[in-house]
Amino acid sequence: MISSVGPERPALEVADVIGEYGEVFLAKYGDTLTDTQRKTLRDLSACRTAALGGHVERCLDCGHERLAYNSCRNRHCPKCQALARARWLAREAELLLPVDYYHVVFTLPAELSDLALANPRMLYNHLFQAASATLREVAANPKRLGAQIGVLAVLHTWGQNLHHHPHLHCVVTGGGLSCDGQGVLEASPRWVSCRPGFFLPVRVLSRVFRGKYLELLRAAFDQGQLKFPGRLGPLAETGGFAELVRLLYKKDWVVYSKAPFGGPAQVLKYLARYTHRVAISNNRLLKLEEGQVTFRYKDYAADRQQKTMTLSAEEFLRRFVQHVLPRGFVKIRHYGLLANRQRADKLDLCRRLLLPRTAVDSAAGLPTKAAGDKAEIAPAQHPVCPRCGGCRLERLELCKAASADQGENSS
Question: Which domain holds residue 198?
Fold first, then answer.
């Protein structure tokens, strides 16, 4: 007998909210959604159901068979990130250096939230460009570090309460290859380390970031590349936009530098939590009753206290789809030493330059940050037999989808 028991599912999922209230939500907000947002709602609703078909798995240990439904593999789906995350981490582990890493967060001001929702691809690209250029420029300054650093940047667009809150998490090498002050490597570069426990001055990063971002924003406006729908209409006038820029120049932009991670193992643990997150995970959902969704969130303004919030199902879905990225948008990017161009050669040079320092620390009995630390990251979990717990499962046959319209998985 074939069972249809798949992986254990939470008591409540985002897919349940979509399945029960998706039509009501579309009737109210459908005209404002993009094709990608509509497709995401369809994908998540159908994920691991008969709508996407499935296959039969047989346990080679006890012979038990079960029907496993296919995943939608949409990058916004709370259920489909584990395998993608494990594969990405395996590749990323090869790029890590035996040094301290720092965590820097760049946040867009709330005044730009609506404009970013109306122009997500452009304003999110500007966020990547301005933040990465800021880090590289300040680090290259001989008065600061005088080095070309490595940067990995991950875009998040949400806060814990699902409000729109675009910010960039940057994982940065605690040092780099010596350069000429303009970011160009010296003829015979050496490794330059940060001061212990200190990366770059946050106030300087904030002001440079603000200037670079507003310069990009102003150029986009001058070239007529921005859209100003609905209540943003007044900004389409030169005077209205100029006033917005003036106010933003007077504001202190939030750039937050956290304590250093430590070595590669700590970095990978962080990346495992942050890189493939979606706006809300299923395990934060508590109940769906009478058209109301209740979920847990951390209140950072109250010392990270755990609290609950209740929203109407339509409002919950409205907030959720705000965080669906444009089709094909790359939300994880590498810069400096980690940029694709000449990355292998630069990292090889870094490791050769760092090797003497690691050997000296080891000889002195000091802890070293060995690249092998990355092996501590747990591998992706594989399906197990619900009867005997064995993990030797073979795929027997495919089951056709219940619907021909399976859609195309988001990148």
Answer: 99-279+327-369
